[in-house]
Amino acid sequence: MSGFGIGLISRAAPGAALFICGVAFASGALLFSPTAAHSQTSRDEILIAAAQRGDAAAVKKLLGDGAGVRARDGGGRTALLAATHRNHVEIARLLIAAGADVNAKDNMEDSPFLYAGAEGRNDILKMTLAAGADLKSVNRYGGTALIPAAHHGHPETVKILLATAIDKDHVNKLGWTALLEAVVLGDGGKTHTEIVRLLVEAGANPNIPDRDGVTPLAHARKRGYSAIARILEQVRAR
Fold this sequence. Notes:
Order of helices and strands: HHHHHHHHHHHHHH
Structural class: mainly alpha
Helix content: 55-70%
Shape: elongated
Radius of gyration: 28 Å
Largest sheet: none
Number of strands: 0
CATH class of the largest domain: Mainly Alpha
Number of domains: 2
Distance between the termini: 93 Å
């Protein structure tokens, strides 16, 4: 500030001097505000977007710059869940290594573990299991990861989950087990037949009925799913 300006401030009334200094301070604060660069919130949002599009270089940089690996977007999604939606395996690996929560649910009650199981994202599923996936966690239908895996026709996913301590006979809000969903919501073809075989061989109870008292075998016979019916008959299902 020039000598002339200093003189003016010194001769000004105390209130005026404080006002001038306050304006100068506010201007400086705006110049150096975190909002002018990337605030923590914007870094977190950019991380989730980068994870969704599969940009590994951007994810690495943002994590290095302090982006929050457990931050969420408006739908409650973490960066890891966004990566899982698109099956970006390497991104998921980076995020889990950085401390991402594999059990963090979004507003629809999906977590990276649950979604990977439901949609057959097997590489990511294995990583979530190694990182402490909660086998008892359930989706919005009250089902474990095994139930939609059976319904959606992912035999390899079913095999991975059956190798854990997951409850093979868990009943969801619809009153269905994984075995019932494989029969009732499957198409009776080769894939769902294989899933029924895997479940039965793993010890799933073939006689748990739905809410109307109809068993998996009765459903299979009614639909004409003869291959599935034979598998169930071999274990003396009723």
